[in-house]
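re: ur question from earlier - yeah i can do the single chain one, its not a big deal. heres the input i used so u can compare w yours
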Amino acid sequence: MGLIIEQTKVPVLVDAGVGTASDAVLAMELGCDAVLMNTAIAEAKDPIRMAGAMKHAVIAGRGAFLAGRMAKRTYADPSSPRAGLI
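and the output i got, formated as tokens:
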């Protein structure tokens, strides 16, 4: 999906495969402009709660995309100072 977003100048919307809030947040973090959803909410055990979760996921994912993530690393590197620790 990231490749599509990078190569187009039109809005990109995800319309399939979104079953839970974590799917929606990932789509938005990748730079999608919107996520359409129906079945994930309509078939949830608690549709109103799922709709709320989706709303928060889309807002959080878009915010993370706009904020820009730190560079990915292939290994762990502590960022806390080591001086003064026991």
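The chain has a mean pLDDT of 90. not sure if urs matches, ping me
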